[in-house]
Amino acid sequence: MTSSTTTSAIESDIDLFSTEALHDPVPSYRTLRDLGPVVHMTEHDLYGLFRYDQVRAALVDWEGFSSAQGIAMNPTANEMSDGSLLSMDPPRHRAVRKVLDDALRPKYVRQVAGNIEHLADELVDDLMRRETFDGVTDFAAKLPVDIVMDLIGFPRDEQRDKILVWALGAFNYFGPPGERQLSTFPDVQALMQYLVTDATPDKLLPDSFGQIVWQAADRGEITENEALMTMSAYACAGLDTTIAGVASTLWLLAQNPDEWTAIRQDPKLVPGAFLEGVRLETPIQHFSRVTTEDKEIEGVTIPEGARVLVSYAAANRDERHYPEPDRFRADRNPADTVGFGFGVHNCPGRTLASMEAHALFGALAKRASTIELTGEPIRTPNNITRGLDTLPVRIS
Ligand code: HEM
């Protein structure tokens, strides 16, 4: 609730979704953090949270900052995501989330860990022979495509290759109204069509996450629509995010050779180095929530019913929380990064994604003494995700 001493949020016309800002968002994040604890972004009528403490507090306060009206930044995407656990509050969220947690629990995921490490070793052996390669398609995308798609249970047909592109389109579609958002509607349609006609329970691979989801629907624990939307969440949240996180970490390591040397000397630093990559580049930059009452944050009011952009990416570079926030430090180990979210919607795939990354960078640390860029990386701007299309590298 508000008190008589509250003020309105400071306004800013910074457009975080312009092509320029999507290519280089860090200066805007700094400006927005410094403006105040809450900023009203007039371009898209969004209230924004950019500081670490405020972002984390809002993610914990699911009653005040609700996901139930969707977490995208336009009404059509929010209507379409009805039934997705990303767009639910407890208690319904708890029931659907339990199905996912059952599938993604560390004990179950660890059963495939040996496989993941073996594939990572083979992959890096091959890359050592080649020396130059693309850090995105040849390194970061391999395990999500070869292992995670099997875990989710997507049939091994030619449609599979298109899931990554459709999922990136779906993330773009989550942005504020505009050309970049509208142009990707065909990808959203294609993904939903695929889930309805190709990734059906009879075609999903046996013993997969997908089967677990549909069995829960058969038992009546979740609805058919919730099962379908959970499959959509797997496709969107589980693949491009990990690829972006691994490719970005590789990019940062290539730019910080001393940190790579430190990791090679002490491979126990590998998990923390991946967290540094997720912190600095934040594969999912922001989602949004809606306030269920007037909220006061450090004397500034956000009115009831406002759409609030919660920026994991800006929070992850907040100097109020992380000293020298823009520096990659292999020994920082930022386990409290909000790059995997926080609170009831925190990422259930964190263990799986980390396992893939640790296997890849662990295998690399055993073999490659140097990682160098051989050209400029290419990035297609996306409203929600931050990743790379190509990353030309050489290892020796
Ligand atoms: C580096 C890799 C990853 C990153 C950075 C990431 C990031 C996130 C973030 C920020 C959220 C919070 C959403 C919110 O606050 O509303 C989230 C939720 C989620 N993630 Fe991940 N994720 C990753 C990997 C994965 C993987 C591998 C899977 C599954 C195979 C997955 C499945 C999900 C699902 C289903 C949710 C929704 C949870 C809920 O609403 O309760 N993610 N992820």
Automatic annotation (TrEMBL):
Q: Which InterPro entries match?
A: Cyt_P450, Cyt_P450_B, Cyt_P450_CS, Cyt_P450_sf
**Could you name the domain of life of the organism this protein comes from?**
Bacteria
Q: Carries keyword Metal-binding?
A: yes
* Keyword check for Transferase: no
Q: Which UniProt keywords apply?
A: Heme, Iron, Metal-binding, Monooxygenase, Oxidoreductase
Query: Which stretches are transmembrane?
Result: none
Annotated family: Belongs to the cytochrome P450 family.
Q: What is this protein called?
A: Cytochrome P450
- Taxonomic lineage from the root: Bacteria, Bacillati, Actinomycetota, Actinomycetes, Mycobacteriales
